[in-house]
């Protein structure tokens, strides 16, 4: 039987989700059905289905008579997200460290990523370098998720990824933060590859703590209309 492929609703959902994660659709942006129909080439029904799915994921707000908007980022939502991540991700990387010690293929994956982080660290700072880092860091995070043996933990962290991605620009407005983050990822890789689960867990907790401090520092300097520091 031929695979029908993704539906129109799936395609619109994937496109909008990526644009929200990349910051191309900023928090607070209006998402009118008519404009989305024109832009995506889909009819109103799949557009509405995609918006409902994004709302269920917390990426879009649906308000009666006002329509859809990209959900705003509040100070409280940032605190809540990172507090939850700090509970989950140290546990996940402990399990990933154990998996890498027992599975040569998983170990090769993390070894390869360490090499990529090292190459990025040696490059001259630029937007291209930052984009390359984001791409490898995203694959690194997914590799940890896949190497986590607890199914519920894997699924929960995966569901947080879009919300984490939205904050990436805020945490790396300062070019020096990218340099620090590359170093942090190298240290986490080293701990994982040497089988030191305690160190890996401690390092990822430190990375998350520094990331949220940087986000709040950048918010304080220029929160913008779509960001609610009082939330």
The CATH architecture of the largest domain is Up-down Bundle
Question: Strand order of the main beta sheet, please?
Answer: 1-3-2
Report the major sheet.
3 strands, antiparallel
Output the CATH class name of the largest domain: Mainly Alpha
* DSSP strand count: 5
**CATH level 3 topology of the largest domain:** Four Helix Bundle (Hemerythrin (Met), subunit A)
Q: What percent of the residues sit in helical stretches (DSSP H or I)? A: over 70%
Give the class from helix and strand content and strand pairing. Answer: mainly alpha
Oligomer: single chain
Tally the helices: 10
Shape: globular
Cα gyration radius (Å)? 19 Å
* Uncertain stretches: none
Mean pLDDT: 88
Structural commentary:
With 231 residues, the protein is mostly helical. The protein has helices spanning 8-21, 33-40, 44-56, 75-102, 104-122, 127-147, 151-166, 168-171, 175-193, 197-221, and strands at 30-31, 60-63, 67-70, 73-74, 227-228. It folds into 2 domains: 8-71, Orthogonal Bundle (Arc Repressor Mutant, subunit A); 74-228, Four Helix Bundle (Hemerythrin (Met), subunit A) (Up-down Bundle). It has 10 helices and 5 strands, in the order αβααβββαααααααβ. The longest helix has 28 residues, at 75-102.
What is this structure, in a nutshell?
The protein has 231 residues and is mostly helical. It has helices spanning 8-21, 33-40, 44-56, 75-102, 104-122, 127-147, 151-166, 168-171, 175-193, 197-221; strands spanning 30-31, 60-63, 67-70, 73-74, 227-228.
């Amino acid at each position: 039987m031929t695979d029908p492929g993704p539906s129109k609703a799936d395609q619109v959902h994937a496109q909008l989700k990526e644009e929200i994660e990349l910051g191309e659709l900023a928090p607070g942006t209006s998402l009118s059905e008519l404009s989305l129909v024109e832009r995506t080439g889909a009819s109103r029904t799949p557009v509405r289905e995609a918006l409902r799915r994004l709302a269920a994921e917390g990426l879009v707000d649906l308000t009666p008579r006002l329509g859809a908007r990209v959900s705003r980022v509040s100070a409280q939502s940032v605190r809540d997200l990172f507090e939850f991540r700090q509970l989950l991700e140290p546990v996940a990387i402990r399990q990933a460290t154990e998996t890498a010690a027992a599975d040569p293929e998983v170990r090769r994956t993390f070894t390869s990523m360490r090499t990529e982080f090292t190459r990025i660290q040696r490059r001259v700072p630029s937007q291209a370098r930052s984009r390359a880092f984001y791409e490898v860091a995203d694959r690194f995070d997914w590799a940890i998720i896949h190497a986590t043996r607890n199914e519920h933990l894997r699924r929960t962290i995966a569901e947080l990824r879009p919300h984490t991605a939205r904050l990436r620009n805020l945490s790396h407005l300062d070019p020096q933060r990218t340099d620090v983050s590359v170093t942090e990822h190298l240290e986490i890789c080293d701990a994982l590859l040497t089988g030191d689960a305690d160190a890996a867990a401690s390092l990822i907790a430190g990375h998350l703590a520094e990331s949220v401090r940087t986000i709040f520092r950048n918010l304080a300097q220029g929160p913008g209309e779509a960001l609610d520091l009082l939330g």
